[in-house]
Amino acid sequence: MSELDYDTILKGIKPSKQEHEEVMKLSGDLVNVINDTASELGVEVEAALVGSVSKGTWLSGNADIDILMKFPLDTSTKLLKKYGLEIGHETIKKMEGAAEERYASHPYVTGYINDYYIDFVPCYDIKSYKELKSAVDRTLLHTKYIQANLTPKQEDEVVLLKKFMESVGTYGSEFKVGGFSGYLCELMILEYGSFKETIQNAALNWKYGHTIDLMNYQTGGNFKDPLVAVDPVDPNRNVAAALTLQKMSEFVVAAVNFHQEPNESYFKQKTHEMDEEILKELFNNRKTKTVLITFKPPNIPADAVYPQIKKTEHSIVRMVESEGFEVFGSASWTDEINEAVMLIEFEVWELPVLKKHLGPKIWIREHQKRFLDKYPDNAWIEEDRWVVGVPREYTQVLTLLSDLMSGKKSGYLQFGKHLKNRIMADHQILDVKNILDSQSNTSGFIKFLYEYLHPGDKIFR
Amino acid sequence: MSELDYDTILKGIKPSKQEHEEVMKLSGDLVNVINDTASELGVEVEAALVGSVSKGTWLSGNADIDILMKFPLDTSTKLLKKYGLEIGHETIKKMEGAAEERYASHPYVTGYINDYYIDFVPCYDIKSYKELKSAVDRTLLHTKYIQANLTPKQEDEVVLLKKFMESVGTYGSEFKVGGFSGYLCELMILEYGSFKETIQNAALNWKYGHTIDLMNYQTGGNFKDPLVAVDPVDPNRNVAAALTLQKMSEFVVAAVNFHQEPNESYFKQKTHEMDEEILKELFNNRKTKTVLITFKPPNIPADAVYPQIKKTEHSIVRMVESEGFEVFGSASWTDEINEAVMLIEFEVWELPVLKKHLGPKIWIREHQKRFLDKYPDNAWIEEDRWVVGVPREYTQVLTLLSDLMSGKKSGYLQFGKHLKNRIMADHQILDVKNILDSQSNTSGFIKFLYEYLHPGDKIFR
């Protein structure tokens, strides 16, 4: 690896002095307001800044301020929920922000204050994973561990790694991405010391099942995941459990590429000139048939929507392939509000009327009788098995898709739970070329199509 | 099984008194002429009538007269061949017939005399399989065994069984059919006693690997064939070795059908009104694409031609399927002289330009480098494997077939030995509809197409 000017790169991606001061000032104010509000209400609560802001590892412009409200362990869940929401709302009101309730382990309130989004999340004030009551509580331990172990120099290394991950498309543990969480990035820097060492290790040494175990708990063998990072604050948890094999592989290959030829462009989003005409030509040249099923996504949290769309997409692919239509590729996308899309690209989308149906072996006379009663015409023998030519239920994949989506042939399809009724009530099945003709597509949708057509694009520079 | 009038059926299929006398008279004359000719030449040879004529089990109009010329065991192979041909030719000359030389274990001569075909085959005069010098010698032992054990009543039972087999398409051990030999039919009658008992046993009791062992040699376990009939004159030979699983299954099912509903029609060839227009409509309705590869068969014995055509047909099917084209069915046919045909019916005959090509797993960094050097563009990752979209070599199956048959892409195809040069020099690749349009097809070819479209036809009445 030749040397890049990391200081210059960091200047572009680290929060400016002004942003840093602004965020820290706001965070400090919020902690004080919460503590004051709790006192006024006579509730024993202490606010704690957690997450990337508290650890100095956030990317410029990405400061999501997370504040935990720590309740004593003997607080009832009911009171924790009640006061958690009450203090959150009261704080946002005092800070003249806008509030919205959300749900993770408990209900909590998010505030939009001075152009920042702030989560106010109630938790129990635990000292060890053994006292854990909900997943949120663990965040407290993570923050303490990183604050105690990450050096200021290493904070910059985390920022470099996160930005690299973001550019190559592997950052974020939410289901939409299935990539590396911020905490996992921090543990990687603690394990290897620096961004460069992390890249070098991933590029040269990582294999399927690679294990990071900073506290030497030796519990890594309990996990079957592609990457194992034993949580320093909980030996029974794999921090990389949500990382898909796909994203781990993409990161390893991006690391190989970067290691061979380090380049500043790995810290920037790749952008492309892309419009409907270019996309249409690309799809045309493949001589495949690409069909889009579009519908309005259900109003549920993003982390629930993505797996449901994926599940539906995969079930459709299995279904149409079992009917004889060959799928070249598939993908799905949603803006989480108005549009959801499942894309299926076919190698074979028309089939002849006749289909071979295998029957019993001829030796089992009873089965043979039943088979021939059912198919009195046109049965024949291949080796020692009965075969019959039956009319194919669907000769056109578009008809099959239409019947699947409208429920005429729904018994076999596994819809995501919240998708079934919504798709059946309203959806469209369109050829990608017709959609591209309409010229009224959102940039997010255009980007989705571009990325489908260029799947390896982000990891090469 | 209700009772059929088997006497009446037999009247239609057994040789008439006149045919019987004519054949026996001719056979007797031939034996005498051979013995006289041998004496004149001073050669120690004795003629013996063998085969179905000698056993009284031939079907009316099907009398192939087989005469063995038995030489003493100490005769040299050279002299046996020399005198075998010499006596054969001389006998045919004396009988004013036409001669043609052929080849089985030894060269031999076939004569056409008084409208009958007669084989004059030299052999050694063996008393036991232990003295066996060539496959022909065994025929002598078979004939003796059947003559010694089959009763006159059972001769009729053999005739019924042979005719039944012929009508349902399972008679004949030559490669063209792969069915039951005459000798095997005779052994079945000896085993079960009568035609009816044979049908009943096949219908109700036969399984894969069923064994007939008239002499209780208990050597059946040595054979892996679908049906085992230990040769009464040679414990190390399975008389049913040439019977295919296909034909055994067809016979069993025909037996089941006949057993459920005995019917005189099982002793007659099924005939069908069939012409080009009807066939064209049948092919049209399937909405498949049926392609015929036609060529002139090589001038080699029929038993060599059929396996070579089958082998080539199967190799083509495997080849086109490996390129992504789905085959619904295939078959082949030849008149053994002028026409040979391989038929392939496609479910999918056109494919898009793009094809997925799987590369190495990403973990093997060395392989990855080689793969990416080879495919620098458009490679991507699926899970932890490299994938690349490459242009398909063939998007039209007709182009692929053309290149295969002309040798442009021959390395992969396994042609039958004598077919390769012949096909490459001259062949046609045509859609079945175009061939049917020509209206100049032979009845054998039309029958072949009919049977391809009605594969279970003969075993149901």
Keywords:
Beta Polymerase, domain 2; tRNA processing (chains A, B); Poly(a)-polymerase, middle domain; 4 domains; 461 residues; NuclTrfase_I-like_C (chains A, B); homodimer
Write the layout of secondary structure elements.
The structure is a homodimer of 461-residue chains.
Chain A: H1 6-13, H2 17-41, E1 46-50, H3 51-55, E2 65-71, H4 77-94, E3 98-103, E4 107-113, E5 116-124, H5 135-149, H6 152-168, H7 182-192, H8 195-204, E6 210-212, E7 227-231, E8 234-238, H9 245-260, H10 276-286, E9 289-295, H11 302-322, E10 327-334, E11 340-346, E12 354-361, H12 365-374, E13 379-382, E14 385-391, H13 397-406, H14 420-425, E15 428-431, H15 432-437, H16 443-453
Parallel strand pairs in A: 2-5, 6-7
Antiparallel strand pairs in A: 1-2, 3-4, 4-5, 7-8, 9-11, 9-15, 10-11, 12-14, 13-14
Helix pairs in contact in A: 1-6, 2-4, 6-7, 7-8, 8-9, 10-16
Oligomer: homodimer
CATH architecture descriptor of the largest domain in chain A: 2-Layer Sandwich
Outline type of chain A: globular
Strand order of the largest sheet of chain A: 1-2-5-4-3
Could you tell me the CATH topology label of the largest domain in chain A.
Beta Polymerase, domain 2
Low-confidence stretches of chain A: none
| Biggest β-sheet description of chain A | 5 strands, mixed
The number of helical runs of chain A is 16
Helix content of chain A: 40-55%
- The CATH superfamily of the largest domain in chain A is known as Beta Polymerase, domain 2
Biggest interface between chains = A-B, 44 and 44 residues
- Radius of gyration of chain A over all CA atoms, rounded: 27 Å
Count of distinct strands of chain A: 15
The CATH C-level name of the largest domain in chain A is Alpha Beta
In round numbers, the mean pLDDT of chain A is 93
Which structural class best describes the helix and strand composition of chain A?
A: alpha+beta
